[in-house]
Amino acid sequence: MKLILSQPLFAQAIETAASVADKKIEHVADFILLTVKDGVLTVIGTDMERESKTCVTLDQESEDGIALVSGKKLKDLVKSAPNDSVVTFKSNPKEPDAFTMTFSGTRSRFTLRGKDATMFPSIDMDGNQKTLSVDRVQFVRALDAMSKFMADQDVRYYLNGVQLVADAQSVKLTATDGHRLSQSRVALESNSADAPFDVIIPRKAVLDIIKMLKSGDETIQIATTANHIVLTLGSNTYISKLIDGKFPDAERVIPRKNQVVYRANRSLLIGSLTRAAILANEKFKGIRMNFTGNELSIEANNPEQDAANEVVDIESVTQGNVEIGFNVKYVIDALQMYTDENVLIELQDGNSSALIRTEAANDHIAVLMPMRL
Amino acid sequence: MGDVIQLLPDNVANQIAAGEVVQRPSSVVKELMENALDAGATKIKLIVKEAGRTLIQVIDNGKGMSPTDARLSLERHATSKIRNAEDLFQIKTMGFRGEALASIVAVAQCELKTKRAEDELGTLIQVEGSETKKQEPCTCENGSSVSVKNLFFNLPARRKFLKSNAVEKRHIIDQFERISIIYPQIKFLFYLDDIKLFHLEPGTLRQRIVGVFGKNYNDRLVPINEETSLVKLAGFIGKPEFAKKKRDGQFLFVNGRFIKSNYLHHGILAAYDELVQTGYHPSYFIHLECDPESIDVNIHPTKTEVKFEDEKSIYAIIRSSVRKALGEHNIAPSLDFNRETAFDEMPKNRDIVAPSISVDPSFNPFEKESGSSLGKLSGAPGKPNKTEIANWGSMIQKDPLLNQQQMNFSSIDKEFVQQENHLESSTLNTDSTEIDPHQNRVFQIHGKYILSPIKSGLMVIDQRRAHERVLYERNLKALALNQGKSQKSLFPVTLEFNASDGAMLQDLSPELHLLGFEFEEFGKNSFIVRGLPAEAAQENCKELFDELLATYKENEQQLELKSHVNIAFSLAQKESKSMNRVLSNVECSALIDELFACENPQTTVGGKPIISTLSLDELNNKFN
After folding, report:
1. Nearest by Cα to B190 from B524, B506, B523
2. Which residues of chain A have a CB within 8 Å of the CB of B515?
3. N or C, which end of chain A has less CB nearby within 10 Å?
4. What is the pLDDT of residues B80-93, one digit of tens each?
5. How many CB pairs under 8 A join A and B?
6. By a Cβ cutoff of 8 Å, what residues of chain B touch chain A?
7. Interval A169-191: pLDDT, tens
8. Among B366, B487, B544, which would you mutate to test the A interface (most chain A Cβ atoms within 10 Å of its Cβ)?
9. Do A179 and B486 touch (CB under 8 A)?
10. Per CATH, which fold does B377-624 belong to?
11. More confident residue, B232 or B564
């Protein structure tokens, strides 16, 4: 096989595949599969739970063939090559399992040992697929917001990911770590849904997908089967196993009827909270928030007896005073989800959960459980 | 001076015997329930009030006693169970000494009602401290009912030494479990303070275990059955994956009698070898049936110790049958979601070949390392030969990267020096915010000890114990000042406990609440947890509770702490367990500061040292 590609394009082509490929798999280790066929390079990396496939059209002469080489080594080598160089990767005619790589403008030459490409596993997709398409920017923004709320290595394994529920008009994303919850809705591109589905994407895949969707076409296709989700963005696809479990019913814990509502300037509030957080207890970051009239006072202190007092002007939408404790990190995370100028904070009392949303949309929300201080 | 030795009156002798037999309310429960079993009852009802301080009553439907027998049964060494010394080696009943009732009536106010099926009228006897107050015919059901009121009423000292109600209740529940499990064919009812704690219908052993320990035990049990000429083994063992931190759920019975035997226990654990993580304990319910002649139960007043004629063989039999049962359990595998799926995908029709080693003769260890990561250089090989040195120089000139960095080495030695400097400076750089050259440096070794040089030598701090101390004092403060922080959770978790843990949890609930736990009772022995201490909010809820209770119990036995001290300590122990890890320098110094801010930085609550110093003299001696 032979392929010639500019360094940035080649680095991009192997990026996701190499990061997905995991040392866990016996025989294949962190190896990725490069296939050249009819002037198109396809790069596949898998850890048997996730699979990333990237296609790049080659604009220079190429020879068809297959290579199974270490993804990490290949990625590190290509990344450290000069940005303006052109990478030539070809099989070595003398040794069938070796591949040579050179960078134009340098005098370096690398020989990578390949493996028997027939050993490369692939994920068996099961059953029929349900597909829909959504706007990439909206989807990745929602997923990015969710990624802070999902649990990490929780024993309730179904919380270590993001729930995706699709109906005819929209797809709803939900993530929670048991102390806070966030939910967002992304509209579908015109009537593209086959059928409703309800799946949980594992944490690792969520982080991969956010990276993968940072740039590219405007629309992405999402397909689900019984056990897998497939994302297609242009000529690239990403497959992940789903978490087999039942996500808790979010509607049950979203407090839609909180009585006390305040409007706050988002960036001002984030500023105050960030300062207060510095003097909050390092371990659990507890702060006290006192909503009265048109003022919110924020107090934090730590075992070293440092103390922070912040007062922020807020606007009372419906009357009521509430004193409530929170993990300040949770509040900041929630506020950072939004881009609007103002947010609404809906409270009941110091013991009940709070809801943060924007004025415009009711389906992009964060729910926070208080901390008893 | 006249003779001074005299025979003790019976009631004094009985009180002395009671010291051995009736140690606490649960001993009474044991003796009375065993009597009911020996009377051939099919239904036994146990009523306990105030942890047995005010009332322990056992009602059975056994064969009952005649009026004369009833009177005699309360005397010492009066028994229907053996007749002569030979019978001692043929014991098929639970009791045989004829001491139990006599001892109990010596230290409590008792009422015995009994009637044989063939009699018209039953007998009522009331006894207080060995003194018969009343004996008269009465109407009653077939069988016997013994109620023991105001235990130790005449021994204020013993009464004072009883532990808290929670502890005594737990002993009683433990005792009840020990007896009810091994007699699944008998119906048991247990009322504790007017609440029906257990209602166990006759059934199989598996049903009984599930009835006592909760339905989640059902799929944890592996049957074990073995018959040898020496001993017949039956029962269940717990699957290794359900082994717990706590030692409860370990039951060994011999001829229907619960026994403790470290030796045989060890045999069972040996079978679990490597299947269970250290510190975790598998549960087991094993019944050994053997010839009564081959065992001696008459070595301890409470009969929880048994001497076997051929203990070694029994050990071997137990170990191999447990092994076998575990093996059979594995042959029929259940769905395992954690299984590595990669192995399913392995090509099947490929020949298995021995791995071959291919040596790349052109491999040059310096080729790669010159360009990238310095970290790998620590493992750089010894002195390279001269040709390589020559190549090395030419490579440097060719490589634009290195030229950029303007590294120009004239010799390898110099290069190594440079690398070492570089390595050192790079480690310094990463920590540069943390290391102050004027400050005492702190080292951590094995993620376990922190070393700090002091004037007179070297101070060694046990990291985990230091953490435990700091957390303990913090928890204690939280308890005293009501400062516990609680992070509430969106999805409350329901936890189920066995009866004794449930009772304990309820007793500890005020303290736990102050520490930041938020939970409430939710039906029988179930608790709904709404919040955890903010520091432990990320922990697995069930595990946190289980380990906390286990540590609490352990501390209770070993250290005899007050409950609030114990709970603060147990929580600190649990939380500090995760602290055996590599700490950053900032964390180390913070820990040392926090430790020395404690009231007692020198020792743990259990009295073990936290700090040890190695004096300069000691160090010097080592080098002489």
Report:
1. B524
2. none
3. N
4. 887 777 777 777 77
5. 82
6. 337, 340-343, 345-347, 371-372, 398-401, 474, 484-491, 516, 518, 531, 534-535, 537-538, 540, 542-543
7. 889 999 998 899 999 998 888 76
8. B487
9. no
10. Ribosomal Protein S8; Chain: A, domain 1 (3.30.1370)
11. B232
Q: Apex CA B155: angle with CA B151 and CA B160, to 5°?
A: 80
Residue A216's domain comprises 130-251
Identify the sign of the CA torsion B328, B332, B337, B338: positive
pLDDT at B286 over 50: yes
Cβ contact A369–B490 (<8 Å): yes
- Interchain CB distance below 8 Å, B342 and A26: yes
Write down the ipTM of this complex. Answer: 0.75
CATH 3.30.1370.100 residue spans of chain B: 377-624
> Identity (one letter) of the amino acid at B351?
D
CATH classification of B10-203, choosing from 3.40.50.720, 3.40.50.150, 3.40.190.10, 3.30.565.10? 3.30.565.10
pLDDT per residue over A85-115, tens digit each? Answer: 999 999 888 888 889 999 998 888 999 988 8
Q: How close does chain A come to B456, measured CA to CA in Å?
A: 30
Cβ contact B35:B146 at 8 Å: yes
Indicate whether A13 belongs to any domain: yes
Select from B506, B541, B540 the least CA-distant residue to B523. Answer: B506
Question: Residue B85's pLDDT is what?
Answer: 77
Last residue of a domain, one of A251, A275, A291: A251
Q: pLDDT digits over B405-450, tens only? A: 444 444 444 444 444 444 444 444 333 333 344 455 778 888 788 8
Fold entry, domain B206-328: Ribosomal Protein S5; domain 2 (3.30.230)
The SS3 call for residue A255 is coil
| Pair A265, A227 in one domain | no
Other C-beta atoms within 10 Å of B199: how many?
A: 11
Structure tokens at B201: 């219908």
Query: Is the predicted pLDDT of residue B382 greater than 80, yes or no?
Result: no
Q: Which tokens go with B193?
A: 């303070």
Structural domains counted in chain A = 3
Q: How do residues B139-178 score in pLDDT, each as one tens digit? A: 888 999 999 999 888 888 888 888 888 888 889 998 999 9
Compute the average pLDDT of residues A227-254.
90
Query: Are residues A200 and A262 located together in one domain of the fold?
Result: no
Determine the pLDDT at residue B358: 64
In a domain, A125, yes or no: no
Residue A175 lies in a domain: yes
Model confidence at A303: pLDDT above 80: no
Shared domain for A243 and A176, answered yes or no, is yes
Same domain for A157 and A246?
Answer: yes
DSSP per-residue codes, A156-199: SGGGSEEEEEE-SSEEEEEEE-SSEEEEEEEEBSTT--SS-EEE
3-state class (DSSP) for residue B166 = helix
Question: How far from B162 is each of B18, B157, B158, B402, CA to CA, in Å?
Answer: 15, 9, 7, 80
**B334 pLDDT higher than 50:** no
Asked if A286 and B489 come within 8 Å (Cβ–Cβ), the reply is no
Q: What pLDDT does residue B510 have? A: 83
CB-nearest to B485 from A154, A155, A284 is: A284
CA–CA dist B268, A15 (Å, integer):
52
> Which residues from chain A sit within 8 angstroms of residue B337, using beta carbons?
244
| Contact assessment for residue A200 and residue A247, using Cβ atoms and an 8 Å cutoff | yes
The DSSP bridge partners found for residue A236 are A233
